[in-house]
Q: What sequence folds into this?
C-alpha cells in the first residue's frame, strides 16, 4: 500500500499532528496476544503510533474518538469469499459486511468469470474500488470448471490468468478446485499454477477430504491454503503439510465443532485464518460475516484473542499483506471498537482511519452510478413451449428414460434409473406421474445448446422453478411440469437479465432480478434479502418442503459425485462422463 | 527457488522414484509443533512427501538413510550475520557452520562493502555460491557508517543500493544502523529505505535501546526486524510494534537470560527468530553457530520445539522464504538429524537433499580456486618511521595534548584529558610515561590521510599492535610506543594484504593474514582459529591482560558514545564532531 513514510515518521515523532486519535481503549495486540490500555494515533489512513495512556502526545490530533474503555481490535479479513453468492455487487457487499467489522476481503470472482470472462473480473475489481471495504481479487482457476462437459461464458488458460494477475488488486490464483487435475498432472492446471508462481502470486487451495499422497502432491504443487476441511483430522493433516487453514462457516457449510476440536490438538495456530466462502444476504443481515465465524469459534471453546488473531493478522500473513491485520506503526488503520471479544457487532469500524460504520450502519458514501453491463441472457433462440419438450424417436407408446433419482433423502446427490415413460406425438409425457418433472438446462452464453431430462422426487407439485445462478457455468436451469410454464419462466429471466424465478399457472409468482451477469442484484443487502424471502415463499407454494431452495443452482454442478445436467447432456460427476437421457 | 513441480507432484504421487528417503526418525513438525515418527521422501533437492511409517511408498527411493530413531529437524537459519567477523570467506564460513546444522544464512557484507564497495558485495555473493550453505545477502545500508567523520573505501547511496538489490541472491537492506537518521528524517536513509521498499525488499533493523516514539517512527519507516535487544522489556516493546525479533548470542554479546525472560512474558513467538551477528572462528569451532543460540535458549528454560521453530520456520517467514525453514512438500530438503532437541551438534546435515556434513565434518566439495581480489593496502605513502610521529609546532619544550583516556575499567569507551607532554625536535615524546602510547589511524583506501594521537592506559608495554579490521571503515589502526615498530607493523600488513599483527623489538611476533580486503583469510576455520590464538599470545606478550584483544578494531568506531580516532582526526562519537589532537 502506497504511503508517505516521511509523514508517517514525522507523525510518530510528534512533529506533525495526526488526523485521528482513538483514546481510552483496551488495545488488543495481535502480535503478542496482550491486551492493555492504549491510544492509537492515525495519519493518512495508517497507524503512526500506539501510545500507552501515560505517554504524552506532542501535538494534538485533529480529531479524537473516545473508546469508552471498550476493546480496539483490527478489522477482520475474509481469506476466501465469493461475493456473487451474496447476490450483491461488490459495492453493496461492502456496505453489508463492513458494519460487522470486516475491512478486507480476498474474493474469488469465479461465478461472474464463468459468465463474462475477464470483463467480469474487471467489473468486480472496479466496482469493489467504490467500496470502503478493501477488496482483493484472486484469478479464478477453473473457468470453466470441467471443460468438455458443459459450456460456460468464458475459458481461462494461462494467458487469461496472466492477464488477470497483472491487474491492480489481484493477489493470486483462486481456489484450485480441480485438485484431481493438480495431483494427477493436468497440463492445464499445471500451466495456470506456473503462471501464478511466476507472477509471485498466492495459490489458493480447495482440497476437500484430500489426504495421503494426493494431499502431499497438492501441497508440493505450490498450493498454500485450504478452506474445505470438515474434520479435526483433515485440519491436522493439512497444517502438518504447511498449508494455511481457512476456518470456514458459510451459509452452506458449518463444521465448527470439528474444526475447533482439530485446532485444540495443535499447539500453533499462526497458519489458521478465517473465511466465509459463500454467504447469503439474509444470513449477512441476521448473523454477520467474518464475525460470525469468530463467534462460532469462541462458542466452541476457542480462545477469543487467538481467534481474533486468526481473523486479522493470520489472514494478512497468509497473503503476505505487510500492512494489514494489525494496529501498529505503518499498518493500515482498519480497526473496530467492540464491547466484548465475542464476535458481536462492533460499535464502530474504521477503514484507513475513516469511520466506515457505526452501530451497524455503514457511513461510507453511496456509489450512485449504475455499473455498466449488458444483459447476459442469450436465450432468445428458445422460442416456443415445445422447445422444452423431451422429444423421442418413438411417435407414440413408451420409451426407456434415464430418470434422475435422488440417492438419499437429502435430495442433493442423484443417480439415474431406467424407467419406461409414455410418449405422445414424439413427446415424453409425465401425465399421472406426480413424482416426475422435466428439467431443462439451457445455454445462455451464445450457444443454442439445451438438455431436457426427467427428474424424480424433486418435489415440484406444479408450475416451474428456475434460475441463472447455476454453478459453475450459470446456464439457465428450469424444473417444470408443463412446457408453457418453463417458457414463461425463461422469458421472465430474460426480461430481468437473469435471477431466480417461480411460475405458477403461467404467472410469475416470485422473482429475484439479478441483472448483473444473471448473478447479482444492484440492490442493497436488505432489499436482496427481502426479495429472496418472497421468492422463497413462492418457491414453497409449488415445491414440497423437502426440496432445497437452491436445488436448481447445483443441478449442473459437475464437481458433485453423482448425476447432474449441463447444457451438453446428463453428466456423471464422479466419472466425469456423459450419460444418455434415454436408456438402452 | 526454481523447482520442477511436475516432477515433485509425480514423486509425491509415487509415480517416479525419489532420490532419498530418510527413514526411522522422530519428525519435528515446525508448523504444528508436533513430533511423530515419519519417513521423508526427497527429490531434486526438495521434500516430495512426509509419510507416516505405515504409509507405503509406491516406488523405492534411489537412496535410503536410517535415522536410527533420532530427531529430524529443519536446517537452521541465521537471520543476521556478518561473515567477515569470522575472518573467513563465505565458502570457508559455510564449511564451518554447516556441520552445526546451519543451512541458510542472511548476511550483511557491511565490512567488505566499506572496503571494496559493490565489488566486495559481488565477491561475497559469488564466493557464497560455491558453498552448500544457502547464503542470502542484504545490501549494507550504512556505507560509510558516518559520512564526513571518516573515509572508507566506498559510499552507497540509493543508486548503489538499487544496483545491489537487483543482484541475484540479495533479499533486502541490511541492518539500518543509522536509526537516528531514520527517525529524525535523514534524506540519505529515507532514500535508501524507499529503494528497498520499491524493490520489495526486506528492511532489517538495528535499534539498540529504542523505545517510545523513536521506536514507533523506526517501525513506521518500514523497518521489520531487530536483533539488538538486551532486556525483556526491549523485546516486548519491539514485538508489540510488529517487529521480528532476532534472538542473538554472538561472540561479543549474550543477553539470553533477559531475552528468555522477555519471551516468557509473551504468548506468541512466531515473530521471533535467531541470529549470530558476529562469530569468531574459535567460537565457531568450540561452541557452534545458530545451534549455540538454540542451546542457550533451551538452557534458559525455553521450550525446545519452540526454539527450533524460531531457528527455522520463523526465520524463513521473516524473510518471506516460502520453501525454507520446514520439511514439508515443496520445501527444500535442508534437514538435520539430531540425537536430542538441545542445540547439540547434529549427526548428519543435508542441504537440498545432499549430505553436507556428518558427525561434525563438512562433506561438500572443496572450491579449490583462489578468489580473485587485489591487495587493498594502499599505504605505500607511509614511507618512514617519522610518518608515525606526532609533530608539534613547538620545537622543544612541552605542548598540551588531548590525551585519550579510558572512561572506566572496561577500557572500551574513552574521553580526552588535557595533558602537557614533552616535545623534542617538534616530535611529541612519551619517554618516561609507561602509561602512554601513540595511536595512528592511517587511510588505506586511496587517500593520504592519517591521524596520530596519544592514548593513556591502553595497556601496551612495548612494541606495537595493529589491524586492518577496524570498524566501520577498516583503515589501519596501530598502537605503538616507537615509530619504527609502527612502520614495521604497517609493512607487514601491507605484505599480507591486511590482517592482525604484533611487533616486538622491530620483529613481527604475531600475524593473521587477512588478504581478502584486509578482513578475511582464505584459510579454514581451524587454521584461522589457530593463527588467531598465536596472535593472541603475541598480543599479550606486549599488552597487559586488561587490554581487550580487539581494542584496535573498535578504536575508529564512530558509533561508540566516546572518543574514537579516524583517519580524519579525533571524533567524539556521542556528539558526532571532531576534537583536536592538541589541546588549547
A:
Amino acid at each position: 500500500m502506497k504511503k508517505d513514510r516521511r509523514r508517517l515518521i514525522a507523525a510518530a515523532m510528534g512533529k506533525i499532528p495526526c488526523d485521528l486519535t482513538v483514546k481510552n481503549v483496551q488495545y488488543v495486540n495481535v502480535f503478542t496476544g496482550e491486551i492493555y490500555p492504549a491510544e492509537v494515533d492515525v495519519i493518512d489512513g495508517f497507524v503512526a503510533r500506539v501510545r500507552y495512556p501515560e505517554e504524552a502526545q506532542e501535538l494534538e490530533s485533529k480529531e479524537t474518538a473516545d473508546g469508552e474503555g471498550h476493546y480496539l481490535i483490527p478489522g477482520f479479513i475474509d481469506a476466501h469469499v465469493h461475493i456473487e453468492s451474496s447476490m450483491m455487487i461488490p459495492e453493496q457487499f461492502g456496505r453489508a459486511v463492513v458494519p460487522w467489522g470486516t475491512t478486507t476481503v480476498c474474493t474469488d470472482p469465479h461465478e461472474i468469470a464463468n459468465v463474462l470472462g475477464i470483463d467480469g473480473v474487471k467489473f468486480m475489481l472496479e466496482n469493489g474500488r467504490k467500496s470502503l471495504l478493501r477488496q482483493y481479487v484472486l484469478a479464478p482457476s477453473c473457468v470453466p470448471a470441467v471443460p468438455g462437459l458443459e459450456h460456460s461464458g468464458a475459458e481461462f488458460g494461462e494467458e487469461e490468468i496472466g492477464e488477470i494477475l497483472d491487474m491492480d488488486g489481484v493477489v493470486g490464483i483462486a481456489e484450485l478446485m480441480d485438485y484431481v487435475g493438480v495431483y494427477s498432472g493436468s497440463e492445464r492446471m499445471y500451466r495456470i499454477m506456473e503462471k501464478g508462481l511466476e507472477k509471485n502470486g498466492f495459490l489458493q487451495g480447495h482440497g476437500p477430504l484430500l489426504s495421503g499422497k494426493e494431499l502431499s502432491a497438492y501441497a508440493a504443487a505450490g498450493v498454500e491454503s485450504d478452506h474445505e476441511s470438515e474434520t479435526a483430522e483433515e485440519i491436522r493433516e493439512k497444517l502438518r503439510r504447511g498449508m494455511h487453514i481457512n476456518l470456514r462457516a458459510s451459509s452452506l457449510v458449518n463444521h465448527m465443532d470439528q474444526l475447533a476440536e482439530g485446532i485444540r490438538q495443535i499447539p500453533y495456530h499462526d497458519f489458521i485464518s478465517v473465511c466465509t466462502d459463500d454467504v447469503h444476504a439474509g444470513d449477512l443481515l441476521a448473523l454477520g460475516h467474518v464475525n460470525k465465524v469468530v463467534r462460532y469459534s469462541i462458542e466452541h471453546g476457542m480462545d477469543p484473542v487467538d481467534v481474533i488473531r486468526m481473523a486479522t493478522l493470520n489472514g494478512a500473513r497468509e497473503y503476505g499483506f505487510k500492512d494489514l491485520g494489525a494496529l501498529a506503526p505503518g499498518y493500515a488503520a482498519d480497526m473496530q471498537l467492540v464491547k466484548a471479544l465475542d464476535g458481536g457487532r462492533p460499535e464502530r469500524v474504521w477503514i484507513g482511519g475513516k469511520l466506515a460504520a457505526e452501530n451497524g450502519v455503514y457511513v461510507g458514501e453511496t456509489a450512485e452510478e449504475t455499473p455498466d453491463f449488458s444483459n447476459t441472457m442469450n436465450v432468445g433462440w428458445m422460442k416456443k413451449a415445445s422447445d422444452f419438450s423431451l422429444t423421442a424417436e418413438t411417435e407414440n407408446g413408451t420409451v426407456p428414460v434415464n430418470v434422475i433419482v435422488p440417492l438419499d433423502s437429502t435430495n442433493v446427490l442423484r443417480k439415474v434409473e431406467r424407467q419406461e415413460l409414455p410418449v405422445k406425438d414424439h413427446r415424453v409425457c409425465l401425465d399421472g406421474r406426480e413424482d416426475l418433472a422435466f428439467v431443462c438446462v439451457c445455454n445462455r452464453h451464445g450457444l443454442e445448446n439445451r438438455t431436457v431430462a426427467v427428474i424424480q422426487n424433486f418435489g415440484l407439485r406444479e408450475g416451474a422453478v428456475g434460475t441463472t445462478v447455476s454453478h459453475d457455468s450459470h446456464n439457465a436451469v428450469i424444473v417444470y411440469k408443463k412446457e408453457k410454464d418453463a417458457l414463461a419462466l425463461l422469458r421472465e429471466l430474460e426480461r430481468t437479465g437473469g435471477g431466480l424465478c417461480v411460475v405458477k399457472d403461467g404467472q410469475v409468482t416470485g422473482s429475484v432480478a439479478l441483472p448483473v451477469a444473471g448473478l447479482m442484484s444492484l440492490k442493497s443487502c436488505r432489499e436482496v434479502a427481502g426479495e429472496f424471502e418472497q421468492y422463497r415463499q413462492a418457491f414453497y407454494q409449488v415445491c414440497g418442503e423437502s426440496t432445497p431452495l437452491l436445488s436448481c443452482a447445483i443441478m449442473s454442478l459437475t464437481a458433485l459425485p453423482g448425476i447432474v445436467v449441463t447444457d451438453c447432456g446428463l453428466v456423471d460427476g464422479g466419472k466425469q462422463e456423459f450419460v444418455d437421457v434415454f436408456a438402452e
About this structure: Chain B has a mean pLDDT of 96. DSSP finds 15 helices and 29 strands in chain B. The CA atoms of residues 247 and 378 of chain B lie 39 Å apart. Chain B has two domains: 74-324, 385-579.
